[in-house]
Design a protein that fits this description.
alpha/beta, about 140 residues
């Protein structure tokens, strides 16, 4: 465990669920936010480990969290799934992300800057065009 709290985040379409674990790994609170309020929440938290399940917006929110002084992790969904307890809800997913983030052998998805994501999108667009030319 680290000295900081851990905030596990489930990024959904309309709401963002966050589960905050204390230093000893106990759930201190769990909340749901709109996107704007989540940014304010991150700004008002002391520096913590903020963990996201890998998805389309995880790199953006990771950059936002880093801008407020937090450490971040992006975890593949396959690594988070074994830690989920109960039904698949936003709150349970956020708690599972927080618990998985504190495990020593969980592999992280690589963090990408805006430039890296731009190059990746260009490469994927090119690949789709080549595929369409040959098979479409």
């Amino acid at each position: 465990m680290n000295n900081h709290t851990t905030i596990g985040v489930d990024l959904a379409k309309n709401v963002i669920a966050a589960a905050c674990l204390s230093k000893n790994g106990k759930l201190s609170h769990s909340k749901e936010f709109s996107r704007r309020k989540f940014r304010d929440y991150l700004a008002n938290q002391k520096p913590s480990l903020v963990a996201f399940e890998a998805c389309a917006t995880a790199h953006y929110w990771s950059r936002v969290a880093r801008s407020f002084g937090h450490n971040t992790k992006i975890l593949p969904a396959m690594s988070v799934t074994p830690f989920r307890q109960g039904h698949k809800t936003d709150a349970n997913d956020a708690l599972a992300v927080a618990e998985a983030a504190n495990r020593p052998n969980i592999k992280e998805a690589p963090y990408k800057t805006i430039d890296q994501q731009t190059v990746q999108s260009i490469q994927r667009s090119r690949d789709l065009l080549i595929y369409a030319r040959h098979y479409g």
